[in-house]
Amino acid sequence: MDILIWIAVGAIAGLLADWVVKGINMGLLGKIIVGILGGFLGGWLLGLLGINIGSTFLSSVVTAFIGAVILLILLGIIRRRR
């Protein structure tokens, strides 16, 4: 069941981040992967900064969204330098 929640959170966060950060074209699977990785990155960064936004489904989506946006921005920078 936890994996389904990770996929749902990743999908929502990835879709929202893709909507905010333009110019990075990925398929649905890519958006889900970015959202899941963004959840790890966002959780790590917020924890490092001492920010706790809760443990609900919505707070997980917000955390993953923050991380996914950062990942997409970094990916855009890397793609432009090539």
Structural domain count: 1
Q: Rough shape?
A: globular
Q: Please give the alpha-carbon distance between the first and last residues.
A: 40 Å
Percent of residues in β-strands: under 5%
Query: DSSP helix count?
Result: 3
Order of helices and strands: HHH
Q: How many strands?
A: 0
Instruction: Give the low-confidence spans.
Output: none
Summing up helix and strand content along with how strands pair, one would put the structural category as mainly alpha
Rg estimate, integer Å = 12 Å
Average pLDDT taken over every residue: 90
Largest sheet composition: none
Helix content: over 70%
Could you walk me through the main structural features you see in this protein, from its secondary elements to its overall organization?
The chain contains 3 helices and no strands. The protein is an all-alpha fold and 82 residues long. It has one domain. The longest helix has 25 residues. It is globular. The N and C termini lie far apart (40 Å). The model has no long low-confidence stretch (mean pLDDT 90).
